[in-house]
Design goal:
Number of helices: 14
Order of helices and strands: HHHHHHHHHHHHHH
Largest sheet: none
Shape: flat
Number of strands: 0
Structural class: mainly alpha
Strand content: under 5%
Amino acid sequence: MPSMLNSSSELFQACATIFGPGINISNDFLDYLQLTSIKTAYRKKALHTHPDRALALGLFADDLNAEFIHVQQAYEKLLAFVETKKEGKTGAPRFDGFNTQQKHTAQSHRHEKNGRHNPKNKYHHDHFYTGNIPQGNLMFGQFLYYSGLISWRTLIEAICWQRRQRPLIGQIAVAWQLISYQDVLFVLKVRNFDEKFGECALRIGYISNFDLFALVGKQKKLQRPFGEFFIEKGLLSDHDLIHLARKQQLHNLTSR
């Protein structure tokens, strides 16, 4: 997989994306760059560009989604740069995704009982699981993670990817003429922190319990399958996906 950092110009562009064009980007700026400042700036930028805000901002969700992905990529580049600088290395870290070599490395680590640190892990918040696969029903992403085939960071990325692919509840409700565009704006304005759109619309009487059930069902039906993330990113082939899905089903059947 190609290196995340190819040139200083890419780092400058990543800084401009995260911190804004008003910042004077230079080599000195890069030298003093810290994880805390990157994360603070990223949170603000990610909130501003999140696709869920498309209706409130009067923008198309696809356009905002593309910008959100661009911000995420810039954030990853800066994190990789700072981690590499902290470790005193000249080479850039590589993405901890799924490939054949990493698969064998991760699987071999599963059998180590001394808990040694994975040298491929370049991010302090990322790791490959090294224990036994838990019993009980596992979703496909969980099965890949607990099998040591993908890192924690890749799992979260896949979950976020799938969420970005599905249409918004408000968009479906408007298409079904359950509520109006103005109603959507009002729900976004009055909903509580961490309250889902559908939950708020139900609470204030805009939709019924049956409406919410139908909307959520339609949203899930329209979202792209979770496994497509790994195919799209080149992490799994169609054959790999089918083979691992069968292993997941077998695990779930035998561990009930």
